[in-house]
Each structure stands twice: as C-alpha cells, then as structure tokens.
Amino acid sequence: MEELYRVWIKDGTFELDARGPSAEFVERTVETYYLRGRSDVGREQPSTNAANAGALVGDLRPTSLRELRRRIGPEKKTEVAAMIAYYLENQPEVAVQEWKPSEVAARFSELREEAPSNPAMTIGSSDFFMRSGTAGHYKLSSTGVRWIELRLSETSEG
To answer: How far is the C-alpha of 71 from the C-alpha of 133, rounded, in Å?
Structure first.
C-alpha cells in the first residue's frame, strides 16, 4: 500500500487538512494555502496560480459540489460518491473525518442526480472507500484520494 502524507493545521478560524502522495506535495499545499500572505514567514511566497491538486480551489473560497463535479467529471456513481466524500472530508465548512453512506447519498440531490439505490453496497464494493473505526462509517481510501487529486491536478494544469 502506498503511503499517504498528511498535515492538519488549525490556526484560529483557519483550518487546513493537506493530504497527498508525497511529502513535497503536502509541503507545497501548506506553502500555498497557509503560509501565503503571512507576514511572519520569512520566505518567498508561492505563486497564487500554483497547481495544487489537494485543495478544492486556489483562493480558499468554498467550492460547491456542482463546481467540483465540473472540475472532476465523474462518470459512474462510485466516482460521484468518491467526489462527494472528498468534499465532505476536505471542504472547510463541512470537514468530517468519516461519514455514513446515507450522508453521501443525500448529497446526490445537490447535483440533481439520482442517488444509488443501495449506497452502502455502492461504497462498500469500491476500492475508493474503506471502513473507518466507527461501525457503519467510511472514509476515502488512498486510492480514492489519489483518483480525485489526479483529476483536480489535470484541470488546474490545463
């Protein structure tokens, strides 16, 4: 299993959960979204248009599920569920560490899409998800995170 690097920062009302396939990726995320604009940091500030696959948007404004879908372009219900789970785990005003399949299914309506008839089966049978420590709860696996972040990096580079 490939390693997933993660840093979580909470500074006042600002919260950043940076995850990625390499330490360098996570460091770039922290530099781009946390250190940018801080006067107490004595290093060159990164470009505001630096490609960063781990963040939902480059300027820290919330991203809607519909905008995220446009950027990622999921085609299958499992891909849409992975995108919703990524949103739940990473969007600052939502940010949960684990979730129930029914919580993901409830978000399909925001996308004007029909939810899977059996969300637990859809999520439980995909490599994009893994069970968390709480019964009936899941979280994205490293495979799911990598799939989403690859799609996000492709749209930010293009």
So the answer is: 31
